[in-house]
Write a structure and sequence with these properties.
697 residues; alpha/beta; OB fold (Dihydrolipoamide Acetyltransferase, E2P); seven-stranded parallel sheet; six-stranded parallel sheet; binds adenosine-5'-diphosphate; binds magnesium ion
């Protein structure tokens, strides 16, 4: 149960004075449904109202259009609006006259606000009309006695349509007012070192910025609040992880015999990274808790053989292993490769996809159930209810981000205390990794197999298209295989398709019989055929939408053309480019772009030309776009951070990660005073679902 001290913050925003149901809806849309959401709704700017010129001094030379001024003046007369003419109120301070202009405001309301003869303090943006200073809809009009209620420096909040700056500011101020003093959950040394204020003080300071610098993510109050948020999320994932690690698994110790035999047949040496990853996985499988490990490695870093070695550990222990791939094409490719690699060990590799039907499917199901087939590769078809194993001990999920959370766990659920190995070709910066997958153990392949040549990457403006086409024609004549990636049109698969089909037609006319097409809407059998004709058939140029992004291996392909490269994300371009440069021939990637390039697009293309290190590219991507996009969190429903900014608070993430693990080592039940305070923190950031894990443990 949420501690009572937080109740006032977890009330609906309508509980705040002056926020009726109608305003509440707008405030909710801008900030969130609860009072606590308003605390996290930080100002995006400030308005400085300290300038108090005499009206006679208002002149465009000294007070240009838009200057914020606060004047004290006496109301002289009203001029009600008529037709399209606005309502005007004339005021003066003896040195000159100022006109206040109101559109669509009722006269009686203005009579009350600005009675003739009364003195008022008026603040707003000055402009000039026929040389006369005026303020349209002043931000503030208050009686002189109430002037001290005006804040000299006012925070400006992000709005939503229909919500006035004054209303949101008032709502936030009321929320801040409600914030109680809370016991400290941070380590005193950390607070001291960073010179962070206490929580309540930080909230109040973050909402009372005095200078533009106070709005920066590095300002002490904001940094502290960001750290609180990160710590809450790190603590939540650390709790999940700690609980999982207490769950019973099985100790799988392979003999190494099968691994040794397949390795002898690889025809290459494993890289240091691969060896280390295999050792980490083996050690994890050997302990009696359930493995949940992510193997991260850029395209071409050689994850498949690592997965094979892991699966052989299960087989050596007398159990079974399964590999789940996101598409039919990939499943077949894996099956093909693994069969070849596993042959020296005499290990049978089964295949089960949506295309295995009838008798073939029946017999595969039977041999999985009897244990006759020790290793199976497949698509979602593996997850169907009637697929049973004699003894599944390891589930491998390739391209894990393509599966939902439940699907990732569903395969292992077919086993008995089975281990899970997730694989991802999306290099994720460490900081992001910790926020998104902090509960997983991670192995990384940081180097590529030797002998790869870097892809020669060039950015070419679209107006040199003819030149590019001629160059491609020459290369094709010399026997090259070419990927031609078509522009991605936002949010519209149909438009993608139309563009790809049009390009396919145009290129087919130039090169009859030698151009293929593959796109996401094709039936998987047709896709396979198109890929096969490209890999070992007559097709020399394959027009594709981004379906080729994932896992396709055609070592003979040495050229890639990406049309409208400026529309692709950095990580996506990197993934695409990973399709070439896989063989021993030099490769070229031509990024065609539509000039003029925006600044971010220009930087993206420059980074791609500079490096092919996926982790570095991911860091840059993060910097250019912010975390959510890199991971596709918007789709995947991963928790969004509101106060922390992954780029500017990167170091805090690592600190919080270590902090959280240390806390749970020392105080696993969060029972010490600091532990109690940390529970509050979890509630405050709505990570309290993690608290159940405390009790379970
Ligand atoms: P990915 O990590 O993208 O799944 P793959 O497992 O498909 O990469 O490996 C890419 C290619 O590199 C494959 O052809 C594979 O046989 C080869 N390969 C893997 N490890 C090595 C190595 N240590 N030395 C040389 N080639 C390797
Ligand atoms: Mg792969």
């Amino acid at each position: 149960m949420r501690p009572a001290i937080l109740d006032r913050l977890f009330a609906p925003v309508a509980a705040l004075a002056g926020i009726g149901p109608q305003l509440a809806r707008l405030v909710e849309r801008a900030a969130g449904p609860l009072v606590v959401d308003l605390l996290w709704h930080l100002p995006s700017g400030i308005v400085d109202r300290r300038a108090t010129p005499r009206i006679g001094a208002l002149h465009p030379r000294d007070w240009p259009d838009g200057s914020v001024v606060t004047v004290t003046a006496t109301v002289e007369r009203h001029q009600p609006g008529a037709g399209r003419r606005p309502y005007r109120v004339f005021v003066s301070d003896g040195s000159g006259g100022l006109m206040l202009v109101y559109f669509n405001v009722k006269g009686d309301q203005l009579q009350r606000l600005l009675p003739v003869g009364a003195e008022r303090v008026i603040s707003g943006r000055v402009e000039y009309y026929d040389g006369m200073p005026q303020i349209v809809h002043p931000d503030h009009v208050v009686a002189a006695e109430a002037a001290e209620k005006l804040r000299a420096i006012e925070p400006v909040y992000p709005l939503t349509a229909g919500l006035s700056p004054r209303v949101i500011a008032r709502a936030v101020a009321a929320a801040v007012e409600r914030a109680p003093e809370l016991p400290e959950w941070l380590q005193p040394e950390l607070r001291e070192r960073r010179r962070w204020p206490a929580w309540r003080e930080a909230v109040s300071a973050a909402h009372n910025p005095q200078t533009a610098a106070d709005l920066a993510p590095e300002s002490r109050p904001r940094e502290r609040l960001a750290y609180d948020e990160i710590l809450a999320s790190q603590l939540a994932v650390a709790l999940v992880r700690a609980t999982r690690r207490r769950r019973r698994g099985r100790a799988l110790a392979g003999s190494g015999a099968l691994q040794a035999r397949v390795e002898a047949g690889f025809g290459f040496q494993l890289t240091t990274s691969q060896r280390q990853a295999i050792a980490e996985i083996a050690a994890d499988m050997q302990t009696p808790h359930r493995m949940m490990r992510l193997l991260q490695g850029d395209v071409g870093s050689g994850k498949t053989v690592v997965a094979l070695c892991a699966m052989l550990i299960a087989v050596e222990s007398g159990a079974q292993a399964a590999l789940l791939a996101p598409t039919e094409v990939l499943a077949r490719q894996h099956h093909h490769v693994l069969q070849r690699l596993a042959k020296p060990a005499g290990v049978e590799i089964g295949l089960l996809t949506g295309r295995e039907k009838g008798r073939a499917r029946e017999s595969m199901l039977a041999s999985l159930a009897s244990g006759l087939t020790p290793v199976v590769v497949g698509t979602h078809a593996l997850l169907q209810q009637d697929v049973e194993f004699r003894d599944l001990a390891l589930a491998v999920i390739d391209e894990q981000h393509r599966f939902g959370v439940e699907q990732r766990l569903a395969l292992a659920a077919k086993g008995r205390d089975a281990d899970t190995l997730l694989m991802s070709a999306t290099p994720i910066p460490r900081t992001l990794m910790l926020t998104a997958y902090g509960d997983l153990d991670v192995s990384r392949l940081t180097e590529k197999p030797p002998g790869r040549r870097p892809v020669d990457t060039r950015a070419v403006p679209l107006d040199r298209f003819d030149e590019v086409a001629r160059g491609i024609a020459r290369a094709l004549k010399a026997g090259a295989k070419v990927f031609w990636v078509c522009p991605m049109v936002e949010e519209s698969e149909n438009a993608d398709l139309a563009a790809a089909e049009a390009r396919f037609k145009a290129l087919s006319e130039l090169l009859p019989g030698r151009v293929g097409l593959v796109h996401g809407r094709m039936r998987s059998a047709d896709k396979d055929r198109a890929m096969a004709e490209f890999a070992d058939g007559p097709v020399a140029l394959l027009v594709a939408t981004t379906v080729i992004e994932v896992g396709i291996d055609v070592p003979a392909a040495t050229i890639m053309v990406v049309e409208h490269a400026e529309r692709f994300g950095l990580a996506q371009l990197h993934q695409l480019r990973g399709r070439i440069g896989r063989g021993d021939q030099p490769s070229t990637c031509l990024l065609l772009y539509q000039p003029p390039l925006g600044e971010i697009a220009r930087q993206r293309l420059a980074i791609l030309r500079e490096t092919d290190d996926g982790f570095r590219i991911a860091e840059e991507d993060l910097r250019l776009r912010g975390g959510g996009e890199v991971l596709g969190t918007r789709q995947s429903g991963l928790p969004q951070l509101r106060l922390a900014d992954l780029a500017s608070h990167a170091t805090l993430i690592t600190v919080a990660h270590d902090d959280a693990r240390l806390v749970l080592d020392r105080d696993p039940a969060l029972a010490t005073p600091r532990g109690e305070a940390l529970r509050l923190l979890l509630y405050l950031f709505r990570r309290d679902e993690a608290i159940q894990y405390l009790r379970a443990g």
